[in-house]
Design brief:
10 helices; single chain; about 30% helix; alpha+beta; 10-stranded mixed beta sheet; Alpha-Beta Plaits; Ribosomal Protein S5, domain 2; 2 domains
C-alpha cells in the first residue's frame, strides 16, 4: 500500500525553445518573450510528512546555503500563506546542473509547492500556488501550472501552447553561468522588437533564437565550444542564460547516435520534449 504521508515526485527540466529580450525595466529586470517546454528528465523530490513542524532537506547542495535553497523557501512560503503547522523531510535526488539554464531550482520549488499542498491537505488552487511561486522566481509559475507556454513580462505572463515534441540532446560544458552577469553585460541585445505569440508559433523552429547566446559565448568560451561542436551536427541553441545547450533531433535513434559521439569532457543526456509536465502526471495518478 502507498504511504499517504510520503510522495516521490519529478521536478522536470525545461528548455527555452526561443528567447527574445525586448526591453529593460526601471527596476532592472528585463522584458522577455520565450517559449517554455518540459523534458522527460529532471530531479526527483521525495517528501515525507512530519507532525512536529520541522523542515529538513537532504542532502545540502554545495554552494547554496539552506536558507537560500528554493525548496525550503517554497515550504516556508506555503506555511506562511496558510498557517499550516506541519513539517516535512525533503530528499532531493539532484540530476540537473546548477546554473545550467534548465530551471532546476525553480522546478524543485514548484514540486515542493505542489507536493506539500497535497501532503499537508491544503487544497490551494494552482493560481494561488503560482502566485506563491512567482515570489520565489520568475520561472517557478510555469512549473506550477505544468503546461508548455508562451511567456512574456519577466517570464511570468503565461499562455499555454502546444509545441512539437522532438528529441533533444542536452549538453553541459562544465561551467556555471551567472544570470545576473549575462543581464548586466553591456553587449546584451535588449531591443528585439516584440512579436505576437501567433507569429512565434508560425515561424519554423530553425528561425528561433536566444538573444542571450552571443553574450554567453563571449563570457564563457566553454559554452562557445559546445555550441560550435553541436551546431555542426544538428540545430543547436542555448537554453535560458545557459550554460546548457540543446540540439533538436527528429528521432530517438538520432539522439542516441549523437550521444555516442559526444566528447567525454562534457556531460550530456537525451530527453523528449513534453507539453505537459510529468509532475502533473504524477500527481494525477
Amino acid at each position: 500500500m502507498p504511504d499517504p504521508g510520503r510522495l516521490t515526485l519529478p521536478a522536470p527540466a525545461k528548455l527555452n525553445r526561443m528567447l527574445h529580450v525586448t526591453g529593460r525595466r526601471t527596476d532592472g529586470y528585463h522584458e522577455l518573450q520565450t517559449l517554455f517546454q518540459f523534458l522527460d528528465h529532471g530531479d526527483t523530490l521525495t517528501l515525507s510528512r512530519r507532525d512536529d513542524g520541522e523542515l529538513r532537506l537532504t542532502p545540502s547542495l554545495e554552494s547554496i546555503d539552506d536558507g537560500d535553497n528554493l525548496i525550503l523557501r517554497a515550504a516556508l512560503a506555503l506555511r506562511d500563506a496558510t498557517g499550516c503547522r506541519l513539517g516535512a523531510d525533503l530528499h532531493l535526488d539532484k540530476r540537473l546542473p546548477l546554473g545550467g539554464g534548465l530551471g532546476g531550482g525553480s522546478s524543485d520549488a514548484a514540486t515542493a509547492l505542489l507536493g506539500l499542498n497535497r501532503l499537508w491537505e491544503l487544497a490551494l488552487p494552482l493560481d494561488t500556488l503560482a502566485e506563491l511561486g512567482l515570489s520565489l522566481g520568475a520561472d517557478v509559475p510555469v512549473f506550477v501550472r505544468g503546461h508548455a507556454a508562451w511567456a512574456e513580462g519577466i517570464g511570468e505572463r503565461l499562455t499555454p501552447v502546444e509545441l512539437e515534441t522532438p528529441w533533444f540532446v542536452v549538453v553541459h560544458p562544465g561551467v556555471s553561468v551567472s544570470t545576473p552577469a549575462v543581464f548586466r553585460a553591456p553587449e546584451l541585445t535588449r531591443d528585439t522588437p516584440p512579436i505576437t505569440m501567433a507569429r512565434a508559433l508560425q515561424g519554423e523552429t530553425a528561425s528561433w533564437r536566444n538573444d542571450c547566446e552571443l553574450t554567453v559565448r563571449e563570457l564563457y568560451p566553454a559554452v562557445a565550444s559546445v555550441l560550435d561542436w553541436l551546431s555542426d551536427r544538428a540545430p543547436a541553441m542555448l537554453t535560458g542564460t545557459g550554460a546548457c545547450i540543446f540540439a533538436r533531433l527528429d528521432h530517438e535513434a538520432d539522439a542516441t547516435a549523437l550521444l555516442a559521439d559526444m566528447p567525454s569532457r562534457w556531460t550530456s543526456f537525451k530527453a523528449q520534449g513534453l507539453n505537459r509536465s510529468p509532475l502533473h502526471d504524477a500527481l494525477d495518478r
